[in-house]
Amino acid sequence: MLLIILENLINILIIVVPVLIAVAYVTLAERKILGSIQLRKGPNVVGLYGLLQPLGDGLKLFAKEAILPSHANISIFILGPILSFALALILWVVLPYSNDIVLSDINIGVLYIFGVSSISVYAILMSGWSSNSKYAYFGAIRAAAQMISYEVSIGLIIISVLLCVGNLNIREIVMAQKEIWYIFPLLPAAIMFAVSSLAETNRTPFDLTEGESELVSGFNVEYSGMAFALFFLAEYSNIIFMSLLFVLLFLGGWLPFPLPLFNNFNDIIIINPSLVLAFKTSLLIFWFIWVRGSFPRMRYDQLMALLWKSYLPLSLGWLIFTVSVILASGSLL
Asked: Would you say the pTM of this structure is higher than 0.85?
């Protein structure tokens, strides 16, 4: 029994530690890329080329005093960031990193992701409500509204992918893309999924929860020290997660190239599957950062209108179109 517990703990650490390191250096990459976009240097003092800057930021947040507002509901106030961070980490349990590397290869991996991501809304609501601040409460309501709304379109888009595969297992979804990546036949759905991912993770131009002009800092305005750091880690963990999920659903995961197009190339060059997955995910993360440096923040009514007036009918129509094509092709065969 002790060996089983120890083995499970090691497996969890194998997933959690790389995720935390990746989160730390995504923050550095974001500051470097934004600096390049804005014609400035970004972090370049702490360590060689600023490579130790994330460690310095982490030590600073760890050493800062955690202030507990006297008017807050203390128990829920403390539980909010812990729950947000924990849910951001347990999402990674079902994601495969190659055909053989996956912590929990369950047959309902997509449903697991839906369930955990829907619960994460409660962490934000808890933190905003327990702060007993109007700014934090309005920020939490905004965040919950846009996350719940855009999960509708993301759900419909993922259902379109599931219909093509006929399986809820994420590894099977990747292996079904041996012949062709789904971004080619499902390009409109992939574009809507990418934009919805920005709104789901509260990123620019959809970061209305952090509207400095009206909400100071949104739902986390009353947090400091490590409590704030947990929200920060959860946000960037979700960015990496959504990028990786997009790669698994639409870009063939760890598969290097669609086989019919690049048969000879795949035979000549053998690439580590995990490195292929990491490279594709890095491109998506770069896109997240590029969007932040290139587009202004939308108004909140524009954000909600984009979903309910555009993406919801489009994703629903695309789902019906996908079903029609699948049924028609089945009848022809």
From this structure: yes
Which pLDDT tens digit goes with each residue over 161-214? Answer: 999 888 888 989 998 888 889 999 899 999 999 999 998 888 888 887 776 666
pLDDT tens digits, residue range 269-312?
A: 557 888 888 899 999 999 999 998 898 888 888 888 888 899 99
Instruction: State the Cα–Cα distance between residues 40 and 31, nearest whole angstrom.
Output: 10
3-state per-residue secondary structure call for the chain: CHHHHHHHHHHHHHHHHHHHHHHHHHHHHHHHHHHHHCCCCCCCCCCHHHCCHHHHHHHHHHHCCCCCCCCCCHHHHHHHHHHHHHHHHHHHHHCCCCCCCCCCCCCCHHHHHHHHHHHHHHHHHHHHHHCCCHHHHHHHHHHHHHHHHHHHHHHHHHHHHHHHHCCCCHHHHHHCCCCCCCCCCCHHHHHHHHHHHHHHCCCCCCCHHHCHHHHCCHHHCCCCHHHHHHHHHHHHHHHHHHHHHHHHHHCCCCCCCCCCCCHHHHHHCCCCHHHHHHHHHHHHHHHHHHHHHHCCCCCHHHHHHHHHHHHHHHHHHHHHHHHHHHHHHHHHC
Could you give the CA distance from residue 292 to residue 200 in angstroms, rounded to a whole number? 14
Nearest CA to 294 among 232, 204, 161?
204
Domain ranges (residues) in the chain: 67-332
